[in-house]
Structures are given as structure tokens and as C-alpha cells.
Amino acid sequence: MNNSIWQKAASIDNRILYIIMAIVVAVPLMNPIGFPIVFQQEVLDTVELIRSFPAGTIAYVGAEVAATNAAELRPMMIAIVQLMYELGHKIVIGGFWADGCSLARLWAAPFLDEAGAVYGEDYVILGYRPSSTSILDQARTNFIDAFSDRDIGGLKLSEMPVMKGLEKASDLGYLAIMNPGSPGTATYTTAWRATGEVNVIIDCCTSGMYISSGNNYQAGLTAGLIGGLNGAAQLEQLTNRPYKAIRSMDAQALGHLAVIALLIIGNIGYFQTKREEEAK
Amino acid sequence: MAGVQVPIGIVNALNPLSPWIGVLVTLGVWSFLYKENPVFRICEHAYVGSAAAHTMVTTFANNIKPGLVVDIAQNGEYWRIIPILLGCMIYFQPFRGYTWVSRYPMSFWVGYNAGYNLTLRVAMPLLTEVRRTMLPIFVTNNGRFDLATSINNFIFTGVVTLTLAYFLFSMNVFKGRAGFMIRTARLVLMAAFGAGFGTGIANYVSLLIGRFDFIMSDVLKLF
Fold first, then answer.
1. Alpha carbons B198 and B204: distance in angstroms, whole number
2. Distance, CA of A172 to CA of A124 (rounded, Å)
């Protein structure tokens, strides 16, 4: 049976599609093209919001991350903690995803250490805790007790200078939550924003969460929004610390263009095949 | 220091190997794209096992051990035995004749969560979103009519109204000429689903970028 070119286009083997996507993503990662980064007002406002907090403010970073979100949330987390440290904010990193805090130690801590931050004085990583609801609820009245007075390595939180002045959740100046799903920003909004403990929540979401995060931002539930790899790249650019996000933007752009092109080819192929069959 | 002590010699010996294990497992999982095979199966089972073990170890190290050893044994906070007992009661569920024991902690937990969610999750976020939906259609800015914001608000409130109307299943009031509302709502919903699908694609492309970045940059140091 002779298949026309359109019939072939409408039924390209999946394995060929995977190879196309792999090439389209891998090549620009090694040889970036340098597409311009367009700034969004929400990211500009969010960076200004973080900068508006005075030195000494205690900021909480929700390390709600997993290895699957590394491309988007790793550069976002690194850029945001670097900005916090530069502004003299005290950084408390916690998380309710099983590998979130371990990944924060791998991703963010080396950059903070390199910048001169001292663990226990300038930042601390709390370690994984199950049951976000009860722990965040308890942290409203006793933050240290809610986290069992232990950091990720078993050190006593109550003996760390960074925890000075942090008795309850309302002592936190603002939150920056990495948001790939649940637990995520909604968990903190319910626990600490709805109760009036913390009014400033910055939603650092993946592209998959961008729609619901955008709704929350528009509704005023969150005060800041940085979305996906694009948001991370803008953050890197705004803080003058280009890292993985800026480099990955070309790969993302070409990857999206490839998907659009394949969608168009597939659809043309489908309708053309239908027309050819009707003509017969 | 650490909750679970691992001999430092083992950690140091495994450190140079761990990125390569990551690369091999990534390639093993990707082999599924060609076809189902034993390598993929091994990687899949290894992931499930290690993820479960990691969660168990970190939960024990960060919660159970400090709770038992420090809070109860060292600090004498014996009241903490009550929630531990409640937690242990859940494990009576598989024992026929004693299942009733597990219902007490469950009823406590369900009651707590229901109250928590009804008061906090529903009240504040939902009411805030409803309030922010009630936007003026005729907007004035410094005494002058703001056309752009007015159009924006009109579309926003219109789309919300149409979508809500679409889900009035029990009242078939949009018949005849009013049926255009339902058809428009369906189009609006399809556009929303398309946007959701688009962000999903973006997420998968990012996932691919993350893996390539790990292999080519973090491990192979190609850039």
C-alpha cells in the first residue's frame, strides 16, 4: 500500500519524535543562541517586593521540590536565596516533600556558602517533616517546637543565631515557596496566610502550576509570582547572576517551537489524508 | 549530628559514583521510549524502593527518633505518649475483631482536618477569589473612562458567569436563544483546557531540559 507524504506525516513513529525533541533540546543547551529575555511585570514587581524588606528580615523558603523539577526550581531557588542573602535577610529553608530539603542542601547551600553565608547564623535548613498541615499549624504558636528543635543534620535550632527572633510563624517577614504541586503554595496560604500570620507569600511555581498560581496572584492570595523556567531566567537576569535558567531558555524556546511545528504537521496530515480518502 | 549515622568512608567511596548512577538510571528509564525492557523494569523498581526507603529513614531520623529519645526520654515530656498511642492504634485496622480500635484515631484525624479545611481552606481563599471576581465593568481612572480595564473586566466577569452557568446541571434554564451561553461557555472551557495542556507541555520540555542539563553539564561537564 502506497502511503502519501501526508499519511506518513500524520503517523510519524513516536521514536522519531523523541529523537527530534532530544536534538532540539540538547543542541541549544551546548550552543546557546541567545534569544532575548522579555521581562514580565509580575517578576519585576516580585523582585522589588523582596528588595523592599529591610536587612535582618527572616525569610522562609519552602523547598517543595523534587528532582523532576530541577530544571525550573533549582535555578529559581538558587537565585532567590542569593538575592535574600545579598539583602541581609536571614534564610530559613523548610519543606514537606521527602527529598525537598536534601535537594535544597545540594542546590542552594553551596551558593550561599560560596557567597560567605554561615550556616546557623545566616541560613538554616530544617529538614523533611511529614504532615504539613499539623506542623504548619503548630508553627503558628511555636515554630521551633513544631520542627522538633532539630535541623536537617540533627543540630538544635534553639541554639542557632539565625533562629533568634523566630518564635512563631508571624515573626517571618515573607515566604518564597517553590511550588510544583501539593504540598505547595496553597498549603502555606491555608496555614499561615488565611490565619493572618504571614501576609506576603511569593509563589515560585513550575510552568505546570502557572495557571492556578496566576489565579491566586490575581486574586491577591499571593503577593509575588515567578513562573517556570522563564521566571527563573528573568530572576537570574535581574539579580545579575546568570546560571542554568538563562542558558536553558533557548532549549525551551526551540522545544516549544518543535512541538508547535509537529502539531501543525500532524494536523495538516490528518485533514489532507481525510480529503484524499474522500476523493477516492 | 545527623539523625542517621552512615560511616563516612562509605559516603566518600560512593560520592564519585552517585552522579554516574543517576546517568545510568536516567538512560535506563529512557530505554522505555524504544520499548518495554528489563533494564527499565529494574530502574523502575529501584526507584520505588529507594524513594520509600528515603521517606522512611528521613521520617524516622527527623521525627520519630527526636520525639522518642529527646522529647520523651530526655526532656520528660510524657504527654507526647498520647499522640504516639493514637498513631499506633491505626495499625489495628487489619485485625478482625479489633478494627474498632483504629476508628478512634481516624475519627480524631477526620474531625481535625474537616474543621481545619472548612474554616481556613474554604473561607479565606474562596471568599477572597469571589470578592476579587466582583469587578466594575465601567472603570474610571482620574475621572476619565478607562476603556482597556473596562474591556478586561467585562471579559473576566463574563467568562466567570458563563462558566458557572455551564455547571448549573440541575436547572435547564438555558434553552432556545439562551443556549448560546452554554455554547460560549463550552468554548471558554476548551480554551482553558488548551492553556492547561500547553503549560503541561512546557513542564515536560523543562523536565527534559533538566535531565539533559544533569547529564551534559553536571556529570559530563560539557558546558
1. 10
2. 14
Contacts B33 to A, Cβ<8 Å: 14-15, 18
First CA to last CA distance, chain B: 36
Q: Which residue has the cell 550552543?
A: A31
Q: What is the pLDDT of residues A189-223, one digit of tens each?
A: 999 998 889 999 999 999 999 999 999 999 899 99
Which of B 186-215 lie inside 8 A of A, CB atoms?
192, 195-196, 199-203, 205-210, 212-214
For residue range A158-176, list pLDDT tens digits in order: 999 999 999 999 999 999 9
Residues of A in contact with B128 (CB under 8 A): 219-221
The minimum CA-CA distance between B197 and chain A, rounded to whole Å, is: 9
The interaxial angle of helices B179-213 and A14-30, nearest 10 deg, is 60
- Which residues in chain A are contacts of B129 at CB distance < 8 A? 215, 219, 221
What is the rounded distance in angstroms from the CA atom of residue A50 to the CA atom of residue A89?
A: 10
On the CB side of A132, how many CA atoms lie within 13 Å of its CA? 20
Contact B206, A71 (CB under 8 A): yes
Task: Name the minimum distance, in Å, from the CA of A248 to any CA of chain B.
Answer: 7
Strand order from edge to edge, sheet including A201-205: A123-128, A90-95, A58-62, A174-179, A201-205, A224-227
Residue pLDDT, tens place only, B90-135: 999 999 899 999 999 999 989 988 888 888 777 788 888 888 888 9
A239 to chain B, any CB pair closer than 8 A? The answer is: no
CATH 3.40.50.10160 fits A41-242, yes or no: yes
Contacts of A218 in chain B (CB under 8 A): 132
All 3 cell numbers of residue B18? Answer: 552517585
